[in-house]
Amino acid sequence: MVEPVVALWAQLEAWVLALVDSAWAVPTLLATTALDGFFPPVPGETVVVSLAVAAQSGAGLPWWVVVPLAALGAWCGDQLAYAVGRAVGTDRVRALRGPRGRRAVAWARTALARRGASVVLGARFVPVGRTAVNVTAGAVGFPRRRFMTLSAVASTAWAAWTVAVGTLAARWLGDQPLLAVAVGVVVGTVVGVVADRVRAVRAGRRDAAAAPGLAAVVDAGTTRSDADGHPDPQLAAAAPAAR
C-alpha cells in the first residue's frame, strides 16, 4: 500500500518539475492565471507556487519573471469575468431575480461604490471570491476604467504574495518540492480567506457606524411593496438619501 503511494508521489513530483522547466511554463502560467479569474477550479495558484518553488532551486523561470506574468494573466482573467458580467447582467441570471437576489445585487453595488478598492483587492486573494466580485462588478455597471486599475493593483499584489509564499515554502521544504507546492497553496489560500474576512468585518463595522439608519429604511422599503413585489417607490427614493 505504501509503495504505490510513494511511486505516485514521485511521478507527480517529476511531472511538476518537468512542466516548470519546459517551454510550456509561460503559456501554462498565463492560461491558468487568466482562467482562474472566472473559473475557480483552474489551479492558478498551484502553477504560480510551483514555478516559485522551482525558481528557488534554480530551475524554470526566475521569480522576477513569474510575478509580472502571473499578474498579467490574473488581470486578463479579471477583465474577462467583468465582461461576462457586463454582457449577461443581473436580470438574466435566475438566481438574482428574486428578493434575495435583488438584495445581493444591491449590496454588491453599494459595497463596490463605497469601498471598491478594498473589495476588489481583498477578493483577489480568495479563489471563489474573486470570481463573484469580478462578475458582479460588470453586472452592476462598476466603472470599467476604475475596475481595470484596481484589478491591476490587486493582480500584482496577488502575484507577488503567491510567489513569496512559494519561495518561503521551498526554503523550508527544499528537498521535497511537491510538498512545498502543496503547503504553499494551502497557506496562501487560508491566509487570503482570513484576510478577506477581517477586511469584510471591519468594513461592515465602519458602514454600521456611518449609516445607522440605512437598515431601517431598506427594511421598510422591502416590507412595504405592491402586489407584484416591487418596493414602495417613496421609500426606495429615501434609501439613497439615508446613505
In words, what does this structure look like?
The protein has helices at residues 2-20, 25-35, 44-56, 63-88, 99-123, 127-139, 144-172, 177-210, 214-223, 233-242. With 243 residues, it is mainly alpha-helical. It has one domain (17-210). Helix 4 crosses helix 6 (127-139), helix 4 (63-88) packs antiparallel against helix 7 (144-172) and helix 9 runs antiparallel to helix 10 (233-242). The termini are far apart.
Specify the structural class: mainly alpha
Whole-number average pLDDT? 73
Largest sheet, strands/sense/barrel: none
| Percent of residues in beta strands | under 5%
As a whole number of angstroms, the C-alpha radius of gyration is 22 Å
> What is the CA–CA distance across the termini?
63 Å
Domain module tally:
1
Number of helices: 10
**What's the number of extended β-strand segments?**
0
What portion of residues is helical? over 70%
Query: Which ranges are low-confidence, i.e. pLDDT below 50, for 5 or more consecutive residues?
Result: 213-243
The topology string of helices and strands comes to: HHHHHHHHHH
> How does the overall form come out from the CA principal axes?
elongated
Topology:
Blueprint: H1 2-20, H2 25-35, H3 44-56, H4 63-88, H5 99-123, H6 127-139, H7 144-172, H8 177-210, H9 214-223, H10 233-242
Helix pairs in contact: 2-3, 2-4, 3-4, 3-7, 3-8, 4-6, 4-7, 5-6, 5-7, 5-8, 7-8, 9-10
